[in-house]
Every structure is written in C-alpha cells, then in structure tokens.
Amino acid sequence: MEKNMDRTIITVVGKDTVGIIAKVCTYLSEHHINVLDISQTIVQEFFNMMMIADMKHSDKPFDQCAKDLELLGEEIGVNIKCQREEIFNKMHRI
Fold first, then answer.
1. What is the pLDDT of residues 37-53, one digit of tens each?
2. Does pTM top 0.70 for this prediction?
3. Which of 8, 9, 13, 52 to pair with 90, CA 20 to 30 A apart?
4. Read out DSSP for 18-83?
5. CA–CA separation, 74 vs 68, rounded Å?
6. Would you say residue 35 has pLDDT above 80?
7. Neighbour-count burial for 18-55, b at 16+ CB within 10 Å, e otherwise
8. With 60 as the cut, is the pLDDT of residue 4 above it?
C-alpha cells in the first residue's frame, strides 16, 4: 500500500482570468511539487480547480507552501487553500 503522507489537496476558486493554472503550476514546479491529478471547471465566469499534489520532494515544508500559495492567490485574485490528504479524507468521510 502506497504511503500518502506527502499528498496534498490544493483548491483554487475565484473569478476566471488568464494564467491561473500556469501560475499555480509554475509555483509547484519551482518547488519540486508534482501534480498527480488535476480537475478544473468554469461555471459562467467562476473558476474552480482541485489538484492532488505530491510534496515528497518539495524544497519547502507544507506550512510554508500553503502560505505561499495563499499569497499567490491574493496576487492573482483567487482563493487558494492547501490541505493534507489524510485530513481532507477524514473531514469528508460520510
């Protein structure tokens, strides 16, 4: 069974603009964070993206990445949240 302790759920929500995915993925790439899965939709003018990322090789700790991504979201006009996969799963259990 694969160990998922380094997997993170990243959500991005806000008004759609050019470059949201590029800017988020550029940050992840620059810090050696691998995108495992990505889903995005646009409903009217609202953008919604959910990513599963592997932080195993990240050059920054989870808390710093979460803060950095939140600040990046503020810069580009969206809300970016990061959550460890095990916490996300526990919160969304039926």
1. 999 999 999 999 999 99
2. yes
3. 13
4. TTHHHHHHHHHHHTT-EEEEEEEEEETTEEEEEEEEE-TT-SS-HHHHHHHHHHHHHHHTEEEEEE
5. 10
6. yes
7. eebeebbeeebeebebeeeeeeeeeeeeebebebbbbb
8. no
Angle, CA 34 vertex, CA 94 and CA 41 arms, to 5°: 55
Locate 29 and state its tokens: 């790439």
The CA distance from 8 to 55, in Å, is: 7
Measure the CA–CA gap between 94 and 61, rounded to whole angstroms. Answer: 30
Cβ atoms of 55 and 27 within 8 Å: the answer is no
User: Which tokens is 72 given?
Assistant: 């990046």
* C-alpha dist (Å) from residue 59 to 6, 28, 30, 79: 13, 10, 9, 23
Give the dihedral of Cα atoms 18, 62, 53, 86; nearest 10 deg. Answer: -130
